[in-house]
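Project standup — Tuesday

K.O.: blocked on the structure for the chain from last sprint. Re-posting the sequence here as requested.
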Amino acid sequence: RRHNLRVSELMLANERMWRSDTDTRDGLLRIWRAMQDCVNSGLKAEGILPGGLNVQRRAARLHRNLLEIGKPNVIGSTLSAMEWVNLYALAVNEENAAGGRMVTAPTNGAAGIVPAVLHYYMRFNPDA
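H.V.: unblocked you, prediction finished:
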């Protein structure tokens, strides 16, 4: 509050201590691409997850089911919106369980929800 900065402005000012704005944005875009790749891989992969527990992947089937229903027409808090966010998080978690590439930000435990929310926002918000 002392400097009247938004959180995003404060974070960018902090990053400027270490790297240029261009390097920061390039790094963020690399992370975002990795998140997108992880979600997309998880939406396509089928079969049994490795590890010997015979856990069946579910994201690809759920994705097909949601595509049949159609995309939500609002970005608000609808059941349909939550189904899509949950699907994207599941896709990431399955990729993690399969040893695929993922982004562990901010933590490995939250590695599914951060890309899921971003993926949903970018896909369904017309102003994104």
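K.O.: great, moving the ticket to review. Helices lie at 7-15, 21-44, 59-69, 79-97, 113-124. Residues 21-44 form the longest helix (24 residues).
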